[in-house]
Amino acid sequence: MNTLLLFCLLAYLIGSIPTGKIVASLKGIDIQQVGTGNIGASNAYLTMGKKAGLLVLLGDFGKAYLLVDLALRYLSFGETSIVGLFLILGNMKSLFLRFSGGKGIATSLGVFLATEPLVGFVLVLCWGAGLVFAKYMFLFAMMGTMIVPFTYYKLTYDLLALFISFLICLLILLKHRKNFKLKSRKGPEVQKI
């Protein structure tokens, strides 16, 4: 079997592992029925506390980082970015959750840090600023996401990786579209993640 295809299938399956659902079920909680209903680290933190949130974050981040790091040894940089895309698709459309899932933030961080650490640093910087100014967390996260493709290309000059990073960022933005609530006359109100 083609190496890229094998890695993509593996990436989708590993990305599909619902870390948040597993962590919550160990506490007797159905994470999809509490808080925002999302299986990601933010909802885990809001509904179960800091330790659970950190565990989910590290789980989603770690599985992506390790697989992408492995893929880089066998595939080109551009091909590895495709593997990263399948990891994020697995997180968002989990095979084990009837094709529902997370929003891809922690998984994408693992992908970008493994492929190009400076890009990951840009994301961490923006998300960190969002945590400091909690009211604007969503805006900082989205700003970091939109900067990624340009930073990626500036550092790698790989057109395939640039295209895939645009797809990843578009998927993340689409997943977060509900974070904007339109209010009449006052413009968009930003919800916390």
What strand order characterises the main sheet?
1-2
Q: What structural class results from the helix and strand content?
A: mainly alpha
Order of helices and strands: HHHHHHHHHEE
Kindly report the average pLDDT value.
83
Q: Tell me how many strands there are.
A: 2
From the alpha-carbon coordinates, what is the Rg to the nearest angstrom?
16 Å
Q: What helical percentage do the residues reach?
A: 55-70%
Name the beta content range.
Answer: under 5%
Number of helices: 9
The low-pLDDT segments are 182-193
Distance between the termini: 40 Å
Number of domains: 1
Biggest β-sheet strands, sense, barrel: 2 strands, antiparallel
* Overall geometry: globular
Catalytic activity: an acyl phosphate + sn-glycerol 3-phosphate = a 1-acyl-sn-glycero-3-phosphate + phosphate
InterPro entries: G3P_acylTferase_PlsY (IPR003811)
Subcellular location: Cell membrane
Keywords: Acyltransferase, Cell membrane, Lipid biosynthesis, Lipid metabolism, Membrane, Phospholipid biosynthesis, Phospholipid metabolism, Transferase, Transmembrane, Transmembrane helix
Keywords, please?
phospholipid metabolism; disordered C terminus; EC 2.3.1.275; globular; Glycerol-3-phosphate acyltransferase; 193 residues; mainly alpha; two-stranded antiparallel sheet
Folded structure, characterized:
This protein is mainly alpha-helical and 193 residues long. It has one domain. Helix content is 68%, strand content 4%. It has nine helices and two strands. The protein has helices at residues 3-16, 19-26, 41-48, 50-71, 77-92, 105-115, 117-132, 137-156, 159-175; strands at 180-183, 187-190. It has a two-stranded antiparallel sheet with strand order 1-2. A hairpin with a 3-residue loop joins β1 and β2 (187-190). α2 (19-26) packs antiparallel against α4 (50-71) and α3 runs antiparallel to α4. The longest helix has 22 residues, at 50-71. The N and C termini lie far apart (40 Å).
